[in-house]
Amino acid sequence: YRPDALVRTRRTAIQDGLGVEARFSNVSGAIRPHPRRGDKLLERDICLIDDVMTSGATLSAATSACLDAGARRVSVLVLARVHKSP
User: Fold this and answer.
1) Nearest Cα to 69, choosing from 28, 40, 49, 29?
2) Where are the domains of the chain?
3) Which has the closest alpha carbon to 68: 26, 31, 25?
4) Tens digit of pLDDT for each residue in 22-63?
5) Alpha carbon distance 44, 34 (integer Å)
6) What is the DSSP secondary-structure string of 22-33?
């Protein structure tokens, strides 16, 4: 359990109301391994847990950060997914 292994490196706009592409652009590069604790991700299997996933943009950014830090594999557990009606 390492809730401090990743950090948000810059402020991002509120995701509510943004389209899928805008959400991914908004969080792109905003999540990085913690400068002093990111080494805990190296050669590890990581499980990211999120309460609600809408577009997957934040989880994608967090997954990329883990892999960039040398994680062996990243799995994602989501408790609920937002379903948009057509």
Assistant:
1) 40
2) 6-81
3) 31
4) 999 999 999 999 999 989 999 999 999 999 999 999 999 999
5) 15
6) HHHHHHTT-EEE
